[in-house]
Design a protein that fits this description.
Blueprint (H helix, E strand, L loop, with lengths): L1 H26 L4 H12 L23 E3 L7 E5 L6 E3 L12 E3 L4 E4 L12 E3 L4 E2 L15 E3 L6 E3 L12 E3 L4 E3 L14 E3 L6 E2 L13 E3 L4 E2 L15 E3 L13 H4 L5 E3 L2 H6 L13 E3 L4 H4 L3
Parallel strand pairs: 2-4, 3-5, 4-6, 5-7, 6-8, 8-10, 9-11, 10-12, 12-14, 13-15, 14-16, 16-17, 17-18
Antiparallel strand pairs: 1-2
Bound molecules: 2-acetamido-2-deoxy-beta-D-glucopyranose (NAG) (11 copies).
């Protein structure tokens, strides 16, 4: 009896060991990241350049195009870089299982649908989903991404308000939300983003006034707020932004004039976009002292502002 079954058992053992070994070689460590990536691939409906053709189980997933894995934690994905490959389809929520990921860059594709859930991505430093067709709100859960340095959702179909909790992203240096359909006010809490260097919110439907506290963000070098429904004038506090290189306030219904000492307090200013009414009426003489200034004009095309 034993003699007759043992070849079968041996065969089964061999088979399962064989598969196990193959998996061990291919996957090493945590294969749940591989399954998450395969889910991502499955939801992509078009891959015109074959960017995902190496994404198959005969290639170790850490060597798939656009994937980088951790050295410390073998088999765990740290980077997903697939910008500009013409990928279309929804972004699989399975990305939220890549819990050690640091960089997601899927910019300039044709991705649609919702953002992936972000609440478990505590290590995420870069989220660049700019220039796609994502249709979603900015989730509150973003605040769990406490390592986030770059948040770029530029040129999508993002709607709803900027969550005030965005201010909890204490190391955020780039906040780029321009060319979307974002409504509501600029939350005053934004002035708590003490590391921020670029804030681009132009081409949305923001209303209310420019928060006075922006003047506290001493490292700010790019601030574009143009083409919104902002009102209430330009706060005097902005003249404290001595690192400012690009200031875009064009085509808003802002009203008011530039603070008279602007040119003296913003020595680094290179580009200044203003509403044409301000341009004709209220340019302070002090701008003559902003010696780097090379452009000062009302906005001409959609593209100008987003060279930032
Ligand atoms: C794989 O990663 C998941 C998600 O981080 C985790 O829950 C699971 O325990 C890990 N498994 C192994 C074997 O490390
Ligand atoms: C799997 O990926 C490799 C490249 O890593 C490629 O050469 C091969 O053709 C792919 N296989 C399939 C079935 O797509
Ligand atoms: C994302 O990738 C594109 C290239 O595909 C690159 O131009 C861009 O700078 C990257 N974004 C970030 C934040 O590094
Ligand atoms: C994440 O992984 C768990 C188990 O590993 C799975 O049950 C779940 O469906 C995955 N979530 C997504 C959004 O893929
Ligand atoms: C946006 O993405 C398209 C491809 O989908 C690309 O042709 C275009 O250059 C991108 N624009 C910017 C400003 O990155
Ligand atoms: C943030 O992460 C913690 C721990 O993973 C989780 O319990 C909490 O629900 C998350 N917060 C949000 C807003 O998703
Ligand atoms: C932007 O939002 C407005 C009002 O919420 C809506 O009517 C419009 O269709 C939206 N536009 C896009 C491109 O989503
Ligand atoms: C900024 O953060 C401090 C401390 O966390 C908090 O007390 C304050 O209310 C915040 N400011 C705004 C405008 O949210
Ligand atoms: C401002 O930027 C400088 C140089 O990039 C950096 O050393 C400094 O820590 C930044 N300050 C804050 C508050 O982030
Ligand atoms: C501008 O900076 C000065 C000195 O750094 C400070 O006293 C003042 O309160 C600041 N003004 C605003 C409006 O932030
Ligand atoms: C330009 O700067 C000089 C030197 O700091 C100062 O004397 C002058 O008043 C400034 N010009 C204007 C128009 O503010």
């Amino acid at each position: 009896m034993l003699m007759t079954t043992s070849p079968l058992i041996t065969l089964l053992l061999l088979l399962s060991c064989g598969i196990g070994d193959a998996h061990g070689l291919m996957v090493r460590g945590n294969s749940s990241d591989m399954l998450s990536l395969l889910d991502f691939k499955k939801s992509v409906t078009s891959d015109p350049n074959g960017a995902l053709s190496s994404w198959n189980t005969s290639t170790p997933f850490c060597r798939w195009n656009g994937i980088m894995c951790s050295r410390k934690h073998p088999g765990r994905v740290t980077k997903l870089h697939l910008g500009g490959h013409g990928l279309s389809g929804p972004v699989s929520p399975s990305l939220s299982n890549l819990t050690l990921i640091k960089e997601i860059n899927l910019s300039s594709n044709a991705l649609s649908g919702q953002l992936p859930p972000l609440n478990h991505l505590h290590k995420l430093e870069v989220l660049d989903l700019g220039n796609n067709s994502l249709h979603d709100t900015i989730p509150d859960a973003l605040t769990n991404c406490s390592s986030l340095r770059i948040l770029d959702l530029y040129r999508n179909l993002i709607f709803g308000e900027i969550p005030p909790q965005v201010s909890m992203l204490s190391v955020l240096s780039v906040l780029r939300l321009s060319l979307n359909n974002i409504t509501g006010i600029i939350p005053p809490s934004i002035s708590n983003l003490t590391s921020v260097q670029k804030i681009s919110l132009s081409w949305n439907q923001l209303t209310g006034s420019i928060p006075d506290g922006l003047g506290k963000l001493s490292n700010l070098s790019v601030l574009t707020l143009g083409e919104n429904g902002l009102s209430g004038g330009i706060p005097q506090s902005l003249s404290n932004l001595s690192s400012l290189r690009i200031l875009g306030l064009e085509l808003t219904v802002l009203g008011g004039a530039l603070p008279p000492n602007f040119g003296n307090t913003l020595p680094r200013l290179q580009w200044l976009y203003l509403d044409s009414s301000m341009f004709h009426g209220y340019i302070p003489a002090s701008l003559g002292n902003a010696s780097d200034l090379e452009r000062i004009k009302p906005l001409e095309t959609r593209e100008c502002v987003d060279n930032s």
